[in-house]
Amino acid sequence: MTLMQVIFLANALVTIFAALMMVTSRKLIHAALWLVLCLFGVAAVFGMLEASFITIVQIIVYIGAIAILILFAVMLTQNAVDDSYKGNRRWLMTGLVALLALGGTLLALFTWPKVASLSTALTTAQLDIGLIGQALVDPQGYVIPFEVSSLLLIAALIGAIYVGMERKGEEK
Amino acid sequence: MLHEWFYLVIFLSIAFLLPAAAILIAGLLSPRKTGKIKTSTYECGIETVGSSKIQFKAQYYLFGLIFLIFDVETVLLFPFAVAYQKILLFGVIEAVLFVLILAAGLAYAWRKGALDWH
Amino acid sequence: MIPLSWFLILSAILFIIGLFAVITRKNSIAILLGIELMLNAANINIITFWRYLYAPSGNLDGIILALMVFVVAAAETAVGLGLILSVYRRRKTVVADDLDTLKG
Amino acid sequence: MSFVADPVTFIIDWLQRVLGGWGLSSGWVQFILFALGAILLTVGPMLLTVGLIWVERKLGGRFQDRLGPNRVGPWGVFQTIADMLKIFTKEYITPIGADKVLYNLAPILAVGAVLGVWAVIPLSSTIFGTNINVGVLYIMAVGAIGELGVILAGLGSNNKYALLGGFRAVAQLISYEVPMVLALLVPVMLSGSMGLNDIAGAQKVAYVFLVPAAALVFFIAAIAENGRAPFDLMEADSEIVAGFNIEYSGLKFGMFYVADFLHAFTSALVFSTIFLGGWQGPGAEQYPILGFIYLMIKTVIVYVFLLGVRFTLPRFRIDQMMAVNWKLLTPLAMAAILVTAIVDKLTPGGFGLVRIVALLVSNVGLLLITNWLVGAYVRAHRARRQVVSGPRTVVVAPPKPVSEAQEVNA
Prior knowledge:
The complex is a heterotetramer of chains A (about 170), B (about 120), C (about 100) and D (about 400).
Chain A: H1 3-24, H2 28-48, H3 52-76, H4 90-111, H5 129-137, H6 143-164
Chain B: H1 2-29, H2 59-82, H3 89-111
Helix pairs in contact in B: 2-3
Chain D: H1 7-21, H2 26-63, H3 79-88, H4 100-116, H5 135-156, H6 160-191, H7 196-201, H8 207-210, H9 212-225, E1 241-244, H10 250-275, H11 288-312, H12 318-346, H13 353-388, H14 402-409
């Protein structure tokens, strides 16, 4: 049990506990804040995988922007009825389905031969962010996803503004 | 690579423990005489009016939304900025196109009045 | 070092919890939270396979795919919350079951 | 490396030998050195804040033609220590119905976020916390954690005004993070790396002279991100009670206070590291201690300038503040990126005179155009307002004929 494995297990426990609390907490604000804790755990997992750029992007985009937007939305719809989680009777059946699905995935996982392979050390040259930058822009590389993502972002921006803005007619 | 992040983990845990310890120590030093009136929520001295759930304007959501879109845009631009010295003019034109498309998004938001705080 | 399977087990568990949240929660914002969790689990898988199988050879597919997952998650949350808020403004409800006017 | 030139590395090597001598494994020695470095880099700024509060109140007095604290000790030097002792013994009043976890977590996050920035600042060519290759983005991520602290304060204290004040503050913080992040793209482009050490090291000519437009946008956004004077709607007296920290008392409120003052000095430090060349200076390579002194001089200059802005400019209304950000700073930051990207690619590399002049002229030109555009926008805006609210004629009742008035009196 090397130090890294202990850290990974501790982090995994915290993340899974936060995810479970997110699903079962009654007040929506607590669910959103448990999600933030879960996102920190996922960022730590990325850190352990030595993807430093993705770790920082996860913290900035998910925790810095998406979680805050969700908290804004929760506050905007505060007066709506708080959904009583215990109320609906579907949760027992879906719990079973979920556990079955989990068992199935794990079973398929362990029959796959390459699963126990260990990771090899990365040289610092390979970790340079500049490589991602060059790949993002060079035509043989990933310039198509780079430009398409800007189109997706502007489409989401225009759509959400059009939908989100209060039209004059409904100021009742 | 990992020991740099390891230092950050130690640094952040100490950076969060320091104020927590200070607050705990101050908690021990300070008196504790809670009264009914003392712990009622403060509202400029008068009794609280109405429930503490108030209706927010949609403005907050719009600003959060525009911030989210521009945050993701900037994050995608950072690898380009790091590799800028090694990129030819053609790559720079692509990134300029990327920024211009999202500037059009900002112009749309400005035109529709989503940027004003009415 | 940490064997590959541990990461996959963690992401499978997170994905299943997200799926569970999407199915059982009635509040549409809680459903959105569940979707976020599922996207995160998928991201862990992507980065794990990139790190263990493709990083030594200098291949960057995994990182770019993970960035695209971030862009899609951001766009999806933005539009999803926009819809939920406009529905809330007109119908004064956020519960997903009440929105059945199309059922006819 | 002699002790005079570089004391910190000398001490580190000496410690390494001593701890190695005690038979500790290298992992543990590394851990102890990391822990020691981290403790120094967190306790140091907290103690520094005590001095900062005094400097700020004293300078504030001078700016507003009054004395500032001068009772406790010579020139009031121990005033802050007296305040600290007082606030340590103040009682914690937690409102009923406050969410215990969120309420208590908020001040810790607020201070922790500001302290976190000190981990990546290169104090001199050899002394720095850590050299992660995503330094600039790390500062943005830590800023996001600070915003989370503000939201938790608003949500946790079960008070209508704290909630509203908290969300207004976060709306301001996230709005001003957009131009700040966009402005940070430019120095990363010029230096070719996100690590703050490489940015500071690459600045043979300080970036303020190469890209003044980005530096100006970053400076204004840093002031707003810190919630300081022209943008201090967060805890402004004329606004909602006292913003998100109404329900806090005792040292919890003190922590928000410390976070505010330390954030001012830290933004000055980040500005001088990224735009003024950090520890760069004559002889900074050979004698790292000189580099540290250069950095401190530059930071103090920027800090005093920051205070000057704080104590002279009046406060923005919230709609003006949002308009300044979205309609002026964000477009200006985007234009600065485009101009720098294109001009820097057309001019030859290195710090040749052609490149410097080209970049400087293009940026100053950009600032002039923006200034002209803002003038045109304001004139058009004022002209339009004139038409709308012309002098309205107030209908005056016709004066009664004199005869009737006498009858009434008679």
